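Objective 1.3, modelling of assemblies. Example input:
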Amino acid sequence: MKYLLKIKADMSHVKKMTPNGGVDSGNMPYFFKLRCEHCDELSKRQCVYMSGAVNYGRDVVNHVLKCKGCKETGAVTLISGYGRDLTVSGAYAPLMLFKCTNGLVPEGYEFNGGWTLTTDSNKVIMDVNLVSNSFYGNFDEYGNQPTIKNTRGKFTLYQEY
Ligand SMILES: [Zn+2]
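Predicted structure (C-alpha cells):
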C-alpha cells in the first residue's frame, strides 16, 4: 500500500518551508511509527531516509521492520516526485509518498530539525528545528519575525487511478 504524508503549519512572515535540500532530499530523516495490520502492534519510532538502502528479499528498500508482535517483516520505500514546498499557511501540502509492504501502516509523523525557510523578505534560514512544532526566528530589518507554529503531519492512503 502507498501512503501520502501531508504536512501543514501556521506560517507568519514565511513564504516557503521545505526540507533542507528540497522535498526529495535523500538525506531528510523521516520519523514516524509503523502499525502492523496483522496484529495491531505499534512500533517504536522509526527513522527512514530515502538514501537508506536495506536488502529485503531480492529488493533494496529504505527500511525494514520486523514486527515485535507477530514477527512478520515488512519494508518501507520512499518515492520521490510527489512532494511540494509548503507555501500556504494552514493548508496541507504533500511532502513524500511511502510504499509500505506486508501490512505496515505509517502513523505519528514527527518533525525533525532539518528544515529550510524562505521569509517574505527573501532570507533563507537553514537547519530550522521543528521538533517542538514551532520556530521563532530573528526579527528582520522591517521588524517582522518569521514564525512557524502548529506543525502537523498526517498519512493518508494514496490511491492511484
Ligand atoms: Zn504484527
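Residues 36, 38-39, 41, 67, 69-70, 72 surround zinc ion (CB under 6 Å).
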